[in-house]
Amino acid sequence: MFENGKKTIGMFACKTQEYFQRTVCKAMAEQAKQWDYNLIIFSTFGEYDNNQEYIAGECNMLEIPCYKKLDAVVLLLDTFDIPQMEERLLHQLEEHVSCPVISIRKKQESCINILSNDKEAVSHMVNHMVDCHQAKKIYYVTGPSTMYDIMCREEGFRETVRKRGLDFCESYIYTGNLWYNAGEQAVDYFLALSDELPDAIICANDYMAISVCEELNKRGINVPEDIKVMGFDDVIEARELYPQISTVCVKPEDFAAKAMEVIRLHDSGCELMEEYYIGSNNLYRDSCGCTQSGKELVTMFRQLSENNRKLIHLGKQNTFMVFRMECINEYGQLPDLIGKFVEGNEGVRHFFICLNEDEQYENKTKTGLPFTDRMNMAIHAHYNGGPNINVDMPGELFDRTELLPINFLESGSQIYYVNPMHYREHCFGYALISFEHHQFQECGDFYQAFLVNLSSVLQTIWVQRHIQKLNEERLHLLRYDRETSLFNQYGFFEASSDWRRNAIENNEFLSFLCIRITNLQEIIERFGWSEREDVIGAVTKAIRQTFQEDNASMTGRTGENEFCIVIKNSSREKLNKVKARFLMAVNQINLKWDKEYFVETSSGGVAQKMSESISVEECIRRAQVKINQDTRGKDNMQKYSNEAVQFIRHNYYRDLNVQDIADSIGITRAYLSTCFKSAYQLSVQEYMTEYRLGKAKEMLADSDLKIKEIAFYTGYRDELYFSKAFKKKYGMSPRSFRQQMEKVSKTQQ
Question: Domains in the chain and their CATH numbers?
Answer without folding.
Answer: 8-99+328-436+444-465 (no CATH), 115-254+271-293 (3.40.50.2300), 489-632 (3.30.70.270), 685-748 (1.10.10.60)
